[in-house]
Amino acid sequence: MKNLFLLIGLFLSVNVFSQTKSTQTVTFSVKGNCEQCKERIENAADIKGVKVCTWEEKTQVATCVYSPDKVSPDQIKQAIAKAGHDVGDIKSTDAVYKKLPKCCQYRDNKCEDKK
């Protein structure tokens, strides 16, 4: 009987540790103008290891929850920059930026026709 309790205890502790996953939260300053930008930024940050990422137009801040054993904050920032949005000190290339819809070109304009 003592062995049965020991076995059950071992099973439960392994189960608890296997469900414990460490995640971290990071915030970035990300430039954008509108809902289209929001969708693009959040989709760009949807890479392996990122649990969720949300961007707020009003604050110009993206908040991402990620697994540090799978992805780094720099990789998330690079993914967003590749989609055409400046992330802190990482600037999107001019070629990618110019492909954004006019409304989303935050360096030059404010979006007048928000969707």
Explain the overall architecture.
This protein is an alpha+beta fold. The protein has helices at 2-19, 35-44, 73-82, 94-98, and strands at 24-29, 50-56, 61-66. It has a three-stranded antiparallel β-sheet with strand order 1-3-2. The chain is elongated, with a radius of gyration of 20 Å.
- What does the largest sheet look like? 3 strands, antiparallel
Tell me, briefly, the overall form. Answer: elongated
**Helix share of residues?**
25-40%
For this structure, the quaternary state is: single chain
Rounded mean pLDDT is: 87
Percent of sequence in beta strands? 15-25%
Number of strands: 3
Q: Which class of secondary structure composition applies to the elements?
A: alpha+beta
Query: Whole-number radius of gyration?
Result: 20 Å
Quick summary of this structure?
This protein is α+β, with helices and mostly antiparallel strands and 115 residues long.
Summarize the topology.
Layout lengths: L1 H18 L4 E6 L5 H10 L5 E7 L4 E6 L6 H10 L11 H5 L17
